[in-house]
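call fold target=Carbamoyl phosphate synthase arginine-specific large chain
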Amino acid sequence: IWQFGIAHIRSKVKQCNLAYILLICHDHIPHKSYSYAFVSSVFQTGMVGYPEALTDPSYKAQILVLTYPLVGNYGVPKDENGDFGLSKVHEYGIYSDCKNHWSSAKSLDQWLKEQGIPGIEGVDTRCLTKKIREKGTMLGKLVVEGTSADSIPFDNPDSRNLVQEVSLKVWVFNPQGTVRITAVDCGIKYNQIRCLCQRGAHVTLVPWDHPLDTNDFDGLFISNGPGDPQYCKETIENLRKVVCKKKPKPVFGICLGHQLLSLVTGSKTYKMKYGNRGHNQPCIHKGTERCFITSQNHGFAVDPQTLPEDWDVLFTNANDHTNEGIVHNSKPLFSVQFHPEHMAGPTDLVSLFDVFLETQLTFLGFPKPEEFVRPRKVLLLGSGGLSIGQAGEFDYSGSQAIKALKEENIQTILINPNIATVQTSKGLADKVYFLPITPDYVTQVIKNERPDGVLLTFGGQTALNCGVELTKLGVLEKYNVRVLGTPVASIEMTEDRKIFVEKMEEINEHVAPSEAAMSVEQAAAAAERLGYPVLIRSAFALGGLGSGFANNKEELIALVTQAFAHTSQVLVDKSLKGWKEIEYEVVRDAYDNCITVCNMENVDPLGIHTGESIVVAPSQTLNDYEYNMLRNTAIKVIRHLGIVGECNIQYALNPESEQYYIIEVNARLSRSSALASKATGYPLAYVAAKLGLGIPLPLLKNSVTNSTTANFEPSLDYCVVKIPRWDLSKFLRVSTKIGSSMKSVGEVMAIGRSFEEAFQKALRMVDENCVGFDHTLKTKREVLKASITAIFLLASKELQIPTDKRIFVLAAALYAGYTVDHLYELTKIDRWFLHKMKNIVDHEKLLETFNQDESVMPPEVMRKAKQLGFSDKQIALAVTELAVRKLRRDWKILPIVKQIDTVAAEWPAHTNYLYLTYHGMESDLAFEESHVMVIGSGVYRIGSSVEFDWCAVGCIMELRKMGYKTIMVNYNPETVSTDYDMCNRLYFDEISFEVVMDIYEMENPEGVILSMGGQLPNNIAMSLHRQQCRILGTSPEFIDSAENRFKFSRMLDTIGISQPCWKELSDTESAMQFCDTVGYPCLVRPSYVLSGAAMNVAYSHSDLEKYLSSAMAVSKEHPVVISKFIQEAKEIDVDAVACDGVVIAIAVSEHVENAGVHSGDATLVTPPQDINQKTMERIKLIVHAIGQELQVTGPFNLQLIAKDDQLKVIECNVRVSRSFPFVSKTCTGVFYVYTSISCMSLLHGVPQFSFSRLAGADVVLGVEMTSTGEVACFGENRYEAYLKAMLSTGFKIPKKNILLSIGSYKVFKPEESLAASHWFVCVYVMAVDWPFEEESDCPNKEKQRNIMDYLVENHFDMVINLSMRNSGGRRLSSFVTKGYRTRRMAVDYSVPLIIDIKCTKLFVQVICRELL
């Protein structure tokens, strides 16, 4: 037994017929735990390669703790001899109770039983690791329950010669080899023999004490082994005879061999506190200063201070600065402490075997680059408006880059028109330009500011494309602006498919069979050569825009025609549907130091865009050979492309072999980078920015540990699951199929110590109405009613064709009895994931047996449920959530807090990244200091995006300025609020009553701020309040008065404030009577919803019935109200801050569009241009009255409508709104968030839409929000500001033809206005009088065909489509109208589209004033 500090661990051991086992230690410290792993007094932090660890003779007489909690995922291969007669088991990984991997012959469980090795599960391995780290070594013993502990004495392995116990007899390998190598076996690993034989060596293995004769060999190799090197006196004496000569033969030692060679030279060795064990130890080579990642397993080290004069240090550990290698100054003698041959870890230095056999100790590293001149002023390009495929992750990356540059005292200039971002806030960049990211505007800024450096990789594809264009135009060269980080030439290599393929062929790597095409004809010919099905992709596009699978020529032509609207080059790829999709995040500096920070595996197979897929980090189903094969390829590719900074590489891996293809390399930070950064705790964007300045990676500190280097590969001791969120229900006629083009608007990241725990957490994070992996959500009724055949037909179709709800069909299928093998055939989701999902469903069935009375449930069943990720609400089948909570607390089944520290507890860490888990017995931190808790906004969705994160960040920063310590609860990896340096404690966990309450009870904060996170925190306000939570700001009762539509309407009536006629819904009949009385159209409004979810305008009884049912589904526990919808009224947005009901700041914005377009979708202007002083005074009176009545403390938002000199209140939100950042950054001197926390020029904001990604969605706006982001620009007048804002969303000014299709607007003649502007000189306006929204009066088919043809041929530069009822109503027409077709085609072919009458008027005025 090695030594350790722990006592009385009761854990099931799979060896002794499921008996209990105790681990008893010398100091008798009591220690209980629950989790999954192996217990030991030596820890190993590698995430793959357990068979090598378990078959390593160096672990002789030790108990091994594997810190990674998911062990055994891919079984054990056949124990058969491979090359040179060596067993293959040492080449592959070992994994859990199931053997799903293609190379596996048996499970880990079976293999351990056969070998007689006890495997203990149910242990908090992180806790054990920390004890070993802190206390160093102590003796320990395993005792089977029932046996007296005193009857078994402690056994000290340090008192034995362990080398003698593991050393073998004489053995010869590869007898036909040309170079004779004698290997001294002190406990040799097979891979050392294999590495020598593969290089043509004839290897003679001799025992540890075998006499050595220089005539018997051309080179001498000394192996690794266990224990203290001082015990190997015979070996030392034998070595001295062959080493201490004038002309010795080459000698190479590894690990123990390194220590023995050092002792031969007269140096000293010493016992380390706990040694170095793991796959990510960084070692710096003396001379070149390059850093290499190595695998290690040793408890003794060499003292470099005792080396003789003719010896020198070869490698030094970058973390603890211990010696990692020595070399003779003139003789061919050297040794290393690490394992360059280690198959389960990095093989970055396996070339040392070549050095040994060639006896030339040279490192063919990259030469040092020229002296790097540090820039004084750097321009950073942002990403512009948020859209599908390009969301808040670029706010996070840009903010980190600015912080990194400021630390180096470099002046920063930012261009970003997105007003809702943190990076555009005061106090970050030195200057911010709210301008479109187009070559024209960026050139103007460069000309004005004269920066000497520019960063292109922190603003997504928008910034990258703009930077490439600026380089081609010669702008950067003209103004001496150097591109920092990855050169533009490298960016173009990754973006241009043809060049990329050629570059990969140069290093003998393969991309998926693919051809680039510049026309439809070329694409069709390429598809014929490759064979259908094929994948069509746009080059230079983000988020798979314009991509899809084509099974035949017709589908291909349709896809390619559409793709050419977005790009000039189309890629035709051979379909690899069903293969695994794997990603690696790679970092490289200018000195060629290279690491992989995180690898990720898509649960969904290839064919679904990675942004649409459920992603797991680290990968779960790769064996160690595959893991390191792809890692080594990633490093080789990144070096060859010359990337400096961070990039992402994606692979397709055959699920039945080791065959792989490179899909693509992204030479910029991406959504995957944000996920990898948050999943590991490694600040990727911050490090990438520093590397762009020419700083070597080993010189950067790991910001989490503050002591180790950033040149390392993180070790995880948890599992991360990312799930995307789609808001497809907000769009009419949208296709729910998911595939190679991104439709998701946001994503969540959940952390757990098991896949099941993280997976169920993530499902709840995506949708607060979902309880977890719920089989009832999709097809329960259908499963109950249908015959078995019908069930299989129904589910099989939904499983084969992925949709946004497929995961719940999977739950229903498992519940209905589908086998894992059948589901694998239908979905191609790896069996390992399906088995894990089945575990959840099986336990759910067990829970159902207690559904009459939860109190009779055994505590272990509930504990297991919590470890599988079940929420209290999920367990509460017959009782309430609170009853389950009480039961759980009585049974002491409580969550514990674990840290994300990047090093799996190997080093002390000062990290604020935290998560809750039920796998463990001890929290990683103490709860002694008081904090203020801020609840974030959760997942980005349509209606809740980066602006709420901006508010939460502003809130935290202000609290810190006021001297408070802060806690943030959020689970969105794309946000700045979840950054490593924003708050004192960050809980990456659910925003639900259960979890927030658990954190509250542990932390006991001074109070909780809900109003900064949007709607989600408000929804749990009353539940928290009932449990006596201290809510800071407006009282939850008053929040309820505003959110509950019935209470709010009644309150307005009481205080005499005008509102549209309203009625609470009691039944459909009375609702219809109300509508008949006030007259249609009427508005259906549910309570407690965000971005107008399920809010609709009804024009008839049939509309009303449809909308009422959807509103009731959304608002089950809260009332639904119906009110008269007032057409053609002006809408006014008011953002205000109050203290105890007294309003202290007001900002008024007006909508350009008429009322009925959601305020998040509307174009806002502040200060308002069309509101007179009298109306402004009345608005202020109303705001003061409502603030007083609701006793508001903090922010609130009010919406009013004005028509015929009358003001009516629509709604009030007692929280920050989407317009909050907009008004904060534009109203001089008032920073509304800061004002809110203390008490607890002209500008245009244009919403950004992502209709081009949502196949089939109708492009109309109404009372429910559909925009994904927004931009804002300043101007001297409204026209200049509007033009800049439109250009920022990607809008292009038309140069030739405009299609003008107007419905019932006969009064306003836009074609006359356009003609009057003398614009006809360059633009031909084609007017078609065509009432699109009516089925009758359709024009003849000939005319329709012509218009469609014009659109396909890109004849029009712009489409103005004014539908007849564009006043808030979104008619659920079952038929596809001509207007819908025109709007849809305009979006599909990238033609700028305007659909609002007032926006058209403003656009015409802009053209007249600004462009002529």
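return ok
Residues 11-159 form a domain with the Glucose Oxidase; domain 1 fold (CATH 3.50.30.20). The longest helix spans residues 624-641.
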